[in-house]
Amino acid sequence: MIFTIAARELRSLFLSPLAWAVLAVVQFILAYIFLSQVDNYLVWQPKLAAVEGAPGVADLVVAPLFADAAIVLLLVAPLLTMRVLSEERRNRTLSLLFSAPVSMTEIILGKYLGVLSFFLILLCLLALMPLSLLTGTELDLGKLAAGLLGLTLLLAAFAATGLFMSALTEQPTIAAISTFGLLLLLWIIDWAGNSDNQSSGLFAYLSMLRHYETLLKGQFNSTDVAYYLLVIILFLGLSIRRLDSDRLSH
Amino acid sequence: MQKDTLVHAEHLTRYYGHTLAVDKVSFDLAKGDVLGFLGPNGAGKTTTMQLITGNLAPSAGRIEVHGIDLLDEPRRAKREIGYLPEQPPVYRELTVEEYLRYCARLNRIARSHISKAISTAMERCGLNEVGHRLIGNLSKGYQQRVGIAQAIIHTPAVVILDEPTVGLDPIQIREIRALIRELGKEHGIILSTHILPEVQAICNRVQIIHQGRLVFSDSIVGLEQQLKATSLIAAFHAAPELEALAKVPGVSRVEALSGGRVRIHFTEMNPAEALIEQSVARGWRLHELSPERRTLEQIFIELTCSEQPVDQPEETA
What we know:
The structure holds two protein chains of two kinds. Chain A is mainly alpha-helical.
């Protein structure tokens, strides 16, 4: 049942021009960033070759590419998640799901999986760029895998946040802007209290960026993974509650 | 409870904040019933329907669908319900077939039966020619039919239609009514409408809901008894005294109206014949005589325009 809903969600995404436009634009921008990183690397490469234990392609090309990709995706993710529930509510199609023998949890998980699979498609296209380097050079696949894992978790968290915001409102644009606001806040939250050591610990933990950076360096810490999983579970849980409250009282 | 009771609603109550939208509504729906829900705007028709379909949770009360408690086992109960809301819940970007396939899956129809279920539903709703078209490009009438197809695709025991003929042209209305009548043979149907003759045309039971309460509940046969003529309007060129008219056999009460007309009430025997005889014999020069029928509209207005509902909702059998 979850997969039925997910499949329809994905299908509807691809039936609208938005998904294609997003894929095209993101791919174009990231390809440009990728090429300029490769270009940079070619300039530095002769000097680096002389140094023992110098950073390799994975550090100088892949990590910056993924760091930039996260910012680009932070901008586009709200556009993809905004319609998921708000539009159903607006077009009154939610009652189709409510009257069907489907639980709220199944509805939310189905919707989430649908959006997530779109993000995974986007991620596959992105992953092809660094993988194309394999034809000409050697690549630290471990670091690449850590980076991909980081980006996957990040996108999964984006999707859950966006889904929740979409569940709150009838207006897709409001869902988009509030998702964007919340994600950006979580991104930069560790800027606060940089000087003050007492509060910065909490803010640093809340920051999506911090957890992403360690993964980009190739470090796999279970705390980082747990952070993303907690964010996902929290927002999915809240979405289920929100949808259920539609039934209960106004 | 009888075996073929499809819906059993008991003291359904629903508040929106402090507003009481539905107040202790109880009724039963048996197999083969086509139940018409009447009521002015904002009376609580749609809310009641949403309660029965599980789109809203009641503040108090109990609903059983085909013997399954909707609140305890929503998944099992919802399988037995097909619901067409006021606005058909269709995805404009899908074709009719894709959409119905999705609905069939949502309603957990076995994979091997899906194609058959779709073709049956499309056949019944007259959608065969538009199966490959996008729903967004269809006319309102066809979208409505797609909505009905969606509600019956899993052959539920109960089909609930919220104003199914709104916005349709007269031919489509006739077709939809015929479809509803046909569905009524195998399913229990609840439909809401503003169009009073529609109820008389397709329903076999009527319920009028007003300010959240059930103020009238009867079968269409019982309703027709109430609608029978109980008065005549007559006009004379040489009008007799009212007392003289009152003495005509069968007349129970006479009432003078403007324009020289009189309203003649009677209870059992229609005094029309006697009136004509007397008119000729006594030279009253009767030139107009017409039976006055109460219409459903009158009953509706009587019940819904009074401040307090006249009938208290009784436990319907």
